[in-house]
Amino acid sequence: MIELTSTRAVFEERRTGLRAASLVCIGVTAFSLVALAVQWQGAAAATPERLRDPTALLALAAFGAIILIFGAASVYGLLLSRTLTLTLDRDAGAILLVAPRGLRMATETLPYYGVRSVRLTGEESLKALALVFVLRDGRVVPVTAAPAHDRERLEALASKIREILAT
Fold first, then answer.
1. Which pTM value belongs to this model?
2. Over the stretch 133-161, which tens digit does the pLDDT of each residue have?
3. Which of 64, 81, 119, 127 fits a 20 to 30 Å CA distance from 72?
4. Any bridge partners for residue 94, and if so which?
5. What's the CA gap between 71 and 85, in Å, rounded?
6. Residue 167 in 3-state DSSP?
7. Angle, CA 47 vertex, CA 41 and CA 49 arms, to 5°
């Protein structure tokens, strides 16, 4: 929680572990790009026939695959690690949810008194849970950016949100 007043509460979900993993993937990608350039230059400098050698081509292909996999993982991780912000504003009568959705940040405004319940949902066997709002019109709106494994943290957050909505 980053702000709490008698009429307004603001929560943020930051995914620092995912951002750190993305930075590691960026490092592996950069290292692989340098290694690919060195391998290519070494093979081309030796003889033009070296670039037709299956072993050299396999090494170049392996570095290319590493670059693609880790490059894609780092972009995906950075996109998912963006901050989700939930604002409960009683005076405005609105709940504002700003969350990463694909390549963009989506903003959704919900009626403050339109929330019927706040609950956890997900797959217990996988321990992947999400916090959701169940609205009076029947819609289910996810509050967390992605499924989480920390049940206690999500239950504490749900309890705090219920407490704020009840006052």
1. 0.67
2. 999 999 999 888 777 778 888 899 899 99
3. 127
4. 89, 111
5. 27
6. coil
7. 110
